[in-house]
Amino acid sequence: MRAFTAMAAVSSVQCLSSCSSHHHHQQRKQSESRWRLSSRVLVSSSLWKISLLSGVDLKRRRHLICTAVKGGAAEGAFKKTVELDRMIDALKDANPRELEKLVVENILAFDEVFWIRLAARSDTCISDDDKKDYEELAATVMTIVDCVVNKTREKIESSTDVLKGILRPVVEGVEEISWPPRDPDGINQMEKEIIQREKEGQLDEGFLSEVSAQLRQAKEDKDKPGLAAMLQKVLQLYAATILSKRSYAKKGNEVVKAEQFLETLIKAPEEQWNKLFLEGLTLGKGEVTPDELSAVIKKRVERTLIRTEGGSYQQRILIEYLKGIESRANEIMKLLQG
Description:
338 residues; mainly alpha; 2 strands; disordered N terminus
């Protein structure tokens, strides 16, 4: 959800300025037609309900009202209506720039319920001028929403192209995806692609969202283990690249061995972790105690939470990578202690 909103926020103003006046005029006509149709349907629906209830005796109507008031659903619907009315009032009072910002920030709020409520508000207007204001508001909001959605679709397509470029070294010329790749150098080439594209700013939230979505789908399908492992590797290489940008292994002229060991694990392929644990921990042949390693992992998690946007794909991927190292360390320590 956040990824969608973030992409929308970045591109909305650019998108709106690029829409031609002719296209805007046509879209407004179509929007107004849809708006009038919605209003007519709602009016007919309202008249039908009034006609239906007119034949119900007064006692029955009171019973229906009491039942509705008591129900939690009625209370929830009332709260939702109040929220929608606040949103509509804010949109009406906003200047063009504020209107764009409001629509982008609340892009997911413009669902069927919103448009029904907006049509209902229009139906209650007495003057034609007020009705026209609602029609123009509806047309403008529809235009902004359509533009944001189209820009987001383009962004997703661009992210897919970036992912294809990263995977090309291990899938090019291969009929069936398998993991690990037949060419051992393929992973090294993938890593180089990720490092280069990260420097160019191509691995943004849109890209991470796309990889995460494809990985989730591959896991759900269960018949593409090679693809799932490949996409998981992309996220691991991304996390290692980002986390390796900062080093905490030195305090002045002193080397902090636990931090240095963690940074070695971060940069290393997952397949080498077991060997590194045996060589680096005091339970094996190393100098770092389990408590020291646990402490620096916890500290790195805290630093990552501070330096990344809360709830972002980047934050989630980096934290999962660090937690993966911690989980593997705990497994190895249990085996060594046992």
